Amino acid sequence: MSETPATAVPPMAMLAELTHRCPLACPYCSNPTELTGRKAELTAEQWADVFRQAAELGVLQAHISGGEPASRRDLEEITKAAADAGLYTNLITSGVGLSRKRLDALDAVGLDHVQLSVQGVDAAAADEIGGYRGGFARKMEVAGWVREIGFPLTLNAVMHRRNLDRLEDTIDLAVRLGARRLEVACVQFHGWATLNRGALMPSREQALRARDTVAAARIRLQGVLAIDFVPPDYYAKFPKACMGGWGSVGLNVTPDGQVLPCHAAASINGLTFERVQERSLKQIWEDSAAFNAFRGDGWMQEPCRSCERKTLDWGGCRCQAMAITGDPAATDPACSKSPYNAALRASAEAYAGSGTDLTYRVAPA
Ligand code: SF4
Ligand code: FES
After folding, report:
1. Whole-prediction pTM
2. Which atom of ligand 2 is nearest to the CA of 267?
3. Ligand 1 center–CA 100 separation, angstroms
4. Ligand 2 in contact with 317 (CB < 6 A)?
5. Whose CA is nearest to atom 1 of ligand 2?
6. Does the CB atom of residue 187 touch ligand 2 within 6 A?
7. Count of C-beta atoms within a 10 Å radius of residue 266
8. In this structure, are strands 153-159 and 113-118 parallel, antiparallel, or unpaired?
9. Cβ neighbours of residue 177 closer than 8 Å, sequence gap 6 or more
């Protein structure tokens, strides 16, 4: 089977993690378990430079995230810099820390889109998972302001064993709030979520039902609500094309300026990730050893190397391969062709229902 060369094409999207600070404490947070403190965060001026470099590199969309980006008092200034650089700006927020006045200010500086996370469909469920009383009520208020101002709204729902049985209600909530898009993302077990596998791992039956529920809703709500679905890949036949392929369509910049191919990349031993303070974004994207490590398919081992799906899923997720096999170049164990697949499925089924206690994310210094 022919090889796809490790050529860097311009990335489409950049995730700008402005801060790890967040009033919520979700037990599946995608931030690393070692959080960056406020003092190490890039300044607004540094972010402005990063956005200019990103636009020159070919990035089209800036996803402004965290932690909770509204925890930064200079969020408006940073968003303006991204918009001024010519990027499409999407604010990914829990809603806590936003007010009508701040949203108006964000509108005035050029914010294009809001993506609001929901942890559940009612206050009791959502506030328990978010670890923040009053969070759900604030989100509902923010969704109303977003609609009044006229931002397009995406709702982002991380689903797991405790809320998957309310997927229909989650879809109804998105319709009621006037969202145009709903992301139904089954929890991926990296970072904090790894500490909560026993409490959050869905059962196989829940995973299958979720797939059917989404399929039916997509037909029913055509033209009303678009639904993206990230299934729990530990019960699927093939893995997801994580990040659309390593170093392929997107990059993340962490609060202290590290440039990563994905949010969990720092979990991979042996790779050095460079910072925007040290080299240009273009040099890091095109030339760094870390970004080139898993580009193309020359790095693949069997069974990926000779598999007909290798340019569809790019061997799955490097971080999941690292976490389970200890080798980031291994076939993702979520693939049915991986020698680790049977063990992964067995461990998922063992975790499903094995615990209820949650380990909440703790706040950074
Ligand atoms: Fe994808 Fe590799 Fe599995 Fe083939 S063997 S389906 S390329 S993960
Ligand atoms: Fe890192 Fe999938 S989360 S490659």
Report:
1. 0.95
2. 1
3. 47
4. yes
5. 319
6. no
7. 18
8. parallel
9. 140, 143, 147, 153, 155
- Please give the Cα distance from 235 to 67 (Å, whole number): 29
User: pLDDT in tens for each of the 365 residues of the chain?
Assistant: 667 767 789 999 999 999 999 999 999 999 999 999 999 999 999 999 999 999 999 999 999 999 999 999 999 999 999 999 999 999 999 999 999 999 999 999 999 999 999 999 999 999 999 999 999 999 999 999 999 999 999 999 999 999 999 999 999 999 999 999 999 999 998 889 999 999 999 999 999 999 999 999 999 999 999 999 998 888 889 999 999 999 999 999 999 999 999 999 999 989 999 999 999 999 999 999 999 999 999 999 999 999 999 999 999 999 999 999 999 999 999 999 999 999 999 999 999 878 889 999 988 77
Verify whether ligand 2 is closer than 6 Å to residue 319 (CB atom).
yes
Phi, psi of 260 (to 5 degrees): -120, 150
318 lines ligand 2 (CB under 6 A): yes
